[in-house]
Amino acid sequence: MEIVKWPHPILDSPGDPVTDFGGGLKKLVSDMFETMYSAPGVGLAAVQVGAAKRLFVMDCSGGKDPDRRVVMINPEVIHVEGEQNGEEGCLSFPGVFTPVERSLRAIVRAHDINGNEFELDDTELTARCMLTKPITAMASFSG
């Protein structure tokens, strides 16, 4: 898949909620992981590949640990706390890295690839990944 670059307007759009958890979604997710790994990156939102859907994939191990692969569909940020500072990049802004302050901990509720609801409560890089711009632009925030 091709990664959409800034200033493409889809990057500022929240994307549509996912309601169909069939084969098309599974193919999209698989293609997104492949695209993210080859970029390389640790997180990729559907809007970043031109799909106006509320979903993102992430793997903060960079592909080294299959258990760290996460798919979050229709995400909702439940809670954030603390703060961390660090340099970040974004696949839609190739070659650009800038210092960013984010919450140290984030709890996000979402659906998995089969439509089952779950919550992910994590810190540091995983929290940072869950709270980046393409993701928070599509996620609702209730905390």
Distance between the termini: 34 Å
In sequence order, what are the helices and strands, one letter per element?
Answer: HEEEEEEEHHE
- Backbone structural class: alpha+beta
Main sheet record: 6 strands, mixed
Radius of gyration: 14 Å
Tally of individual helices:
3
Mean pLDDT: 91
Number of strands: 8
Strand content: 35-45%
What does the overall shape look like? globular
Helix content: 10-25%
Question: Which regions contain 5 or more consecutive residues with pLDDT less than 50?
Answer: 136-143
Describe this structure in a few short sentences:
The protein is 19% helix and 36% strand.
List descriptors:
143 residues; alpha+beta; 6-stranded mixed β-sheet; two-stranded antiparallel sheet; 3 helices
Report on the structure:
It is a single chain. By secondary structure, the chain is an alpha+beta fold. The protein contains three helices and eight strands, in the order H-E-E-E-E-E-E-E-H-H-E.
What topology emerges from the helices and strands here?
Elements: H1 23-38, E1 43-45, E2 55-58, E3 70-81, E4 84-90, E5 93-102, E6 105-111, E7 117-123, H2 124-130, H3 133-136, E8 140-141
Parallel strand pairs: 3-8
Antiparallel strand pairs: 1-2, 2-3, 3-6, 4-5, 6-7
